[in-house]
Design brief:
Length: 186
């Protein structure tokens, strides 16, 4: 027997009643066995008084209260949208486009046109199908996968849509590969 049964308190129907019924070698005793009946009643009363989350039909603790004093206006009243000073508004347009130090000649729209082109989408799908939608580094199938150009599209535009110049990688392997390439180049 895993438990030593002693003092089996049963009611007239044969069910166990509350109280110390058996001693478990693993779990220890019940509250009545450890503290006695009087202290157990005090502990259980304290537990009953504690709020146990939101109950249907009960009001919330802070209902009807606000953090404002009577007559005080909220700080954001009549302040819809962002209002910048005229100086800031003027400076905002100063570093846009070709005036910005990181300007590279307006290449992003060209890149976006290539990525959105039907030819690029077909190349990407052909690379995925050839590799069976499996990352070629970690052999993880499906998930977030990327078609990677083996020879850079920017340096070899003639190989940009060649299926043999692509391979399927998962996002994490793709970012690790580019970090490694950046470390070699930089």
């Amino acid at each position: 027997m895993p438990y030593e049964f002693e003092n089996l308190n049963r009611d007239a129907d044969g069910r166990f009643t509350r109280g110390y019924t058996y001693e478990s070698p693993k779990k220890g005793r019940t509250f009545e066995g450890m503290y006695g009946n009087e202290k157990t009643k005090v502990i259980k009363r304290k537990w009953k008084k504690k709020p146990r989350g939101f109950k249907k039909g009960h009001s919330q603790l802070n209902s009807g209260r606000t953090h404002f004093k009577k007559g005080q206006e909220p700080w954001n009243k009549n302040k819809k949208g962002i209002h910048l000073s005229p100086e800031t508004e003027f400076q905002r347009g100063q570093l846009t486009g070709d005036k910005h130090p990181n300007w590279k000649g307006g290449i992003s729209p060209i890149r976006n046109l290539i990525w959105r082109s039907e030819q690029y989408q077909e190349w990407r799908d052909a690379v995925f199908k050839r590799d069976d939608y499996t990352c070629q580094d970690c052999n993880k199938r499906g998930g977030r996968i990327v078609a990677h150009h083996i020879k850079f599209f920017s340096l070899f535009p003639e190989l940009g849509f060649d299926v043999d110049n692509g391979r399927t990688l998962c996002r994490s392997c793709h970012s690790k590969l580019h970090a490694k390439l950046k470390g070699v180049a930089g």
